[in-house]
């Protein structure tokens, strides 16, 4: 692993408590009874709840779990993915409660929502090459007290911009397959067949 990325936070845990090196997640949009939502599958198993935009005006936030994949890929951090994939570090009760627990999950969801709302004002970062330093510092403040606060701001910038690049592809194709390679630090998209 390239040392500039930093060590994985779960390196000292058993495999059943570590984020996998590679995650392939299928996003499928469905409309039932006039309501549109996204289903996600990993290894052929439905993951998480059916997601809607949870908003009066549709904005495709239902595809937002791609951001959690991006955080795992570029930061090695996602309490949300740990919960969805049942990979919480339960062998260490303190880590389980503080780093993988409900508050950490809410912090990550809050970061995702806050950045999403910010990006909506900038065409989902379509032409953005560098993020505003103030935005990155605010994210750092939001995650203070969690293991990910140790990651440099350039990794946050990469996670956010790459996450939005794939989000735009998901939005345009109305679903597809996202592959997160946590060791090579790449996030890729393939349209559904």
How far apart are the first and last residues' alpha carbons, in Å? 33 Å
Q: Please summarize the sheet with the most strands.
A: 5 strands, antiparallel
Tally of DSSP helical segments: 6
Q: Give the total of beta strands.
A: 5
Strand content: 15-25%
Numbering strands along the chain, what is their spatial order in the largest sheet? Answer: 3-2-1-4-5
Average residue pLDDT: 94
Work out the helicity level: 25-40%
Q: Could you list the spans in which at least 5 consecutive residues all have pLDDT below 50?
A: none
Order of helices and strands: EEEHHHHHHEE
The general outline is globular
Radius of gyration: 16 Å
* Helix/strand class: alpha+beta
Report what the structure shows.
Strands 3-2-1-4-5 form a five-stranded antiparallel β-sheet, with helices on one face. The mean pLDDT is 94. It is globular, with a radius of gyration of 16 Å. Strand 4 (175-181) and strand 5 (186-190) form a beta hairpin. 38% of the residues lie in helices and 17% in strands. The chain is α+β, with helices and mostly antiparallel strands. Helix 1 (65-75) runs antiparallel to helix 6.
Explain the layout of strands and helices:
Layout: E1 22-32, E2 35-42, E3 45-46, H1 65-75, H2 79-84, H3 93-98, H4 102-120, H5 133-142, H6 153-173, E4 175-181, E5 186-190
